[in-house]
Amino acid sequence: MVRLIPKDEKFYELFIKDGEIIVEAARKLEALVTDYDRLDERLAEIQVLEKQGDGVDEEIAARLERSFITPFDREDIHELTTHLDDILDGIQATAETFLIYAVEQPTDECKQMVGILSGQARQLLEVLTKLEKDKKNLGGHLATIHDLEHQADGLSRAAIGRLFKGDLDTLEVIKLRDLYLALEETIDAAEDAAEVIERILAKV
Q: Given its phi and psi angles, is residue 8 left (phi above 0), alpha (psi -120 to 50 degrees) or beta?
């Protein structure tokens, strides 16, 4: 059957753009915790990327409003966009926490969690890049995103547990706990995005 009204395939390009921005923001967060200098400048770079992501999300929302036929369910498009935005917001919030809380140095656990987040971002970009034409080869990438979330979950629980068993200053405990929680929420958002994509794949 000839489709008289074509699907709006631009969504795929926009999701890829969102994924690219997330990867770049995650890399900048990695650089921040690795070098831990020029925090104001590094935060500003992440904030610029977050605004770019907002622009992509606004374009997705606008296309959703005017498109008669979409490549997959509107609810899934909206939910995926929301979780991608949550990842970028979480990266920015984490970077801001380092600056606002005047954290002296990121802990090893914090660096590991940022590395996990960056790994998830790369896998998510692979999925978004292949989503239009290579749907059968996404399982490995999605499984890796879930595995990384499980690693981060255990790492965060252990790190927070150690905070309350040690002799750290109370204020320092609060700072680090909030950092771990911000990272954990961002990593969870990446897994949430993966779960939406899994639902999309189950319907095709």
A: beta
What's the pTM? Answer: 0.94
pLDDT, tens digit, for every residue of 153-193?
A: 999 999 999 998 878 899 999 999 999 999 999 999 999 99
pLDDT tens track for 81-119: 999 999 999 999 999 999 999 999 999 999 999 999 999
φ/ψ of 4, rounded to 5, equals -70, -35
> Domain limits of the chain?
10-203
* Fold of the domain built from segment(s) 10-203: Methane Monooxygenase Hydroxylase; Chain G, domain 1 (1.20.58)
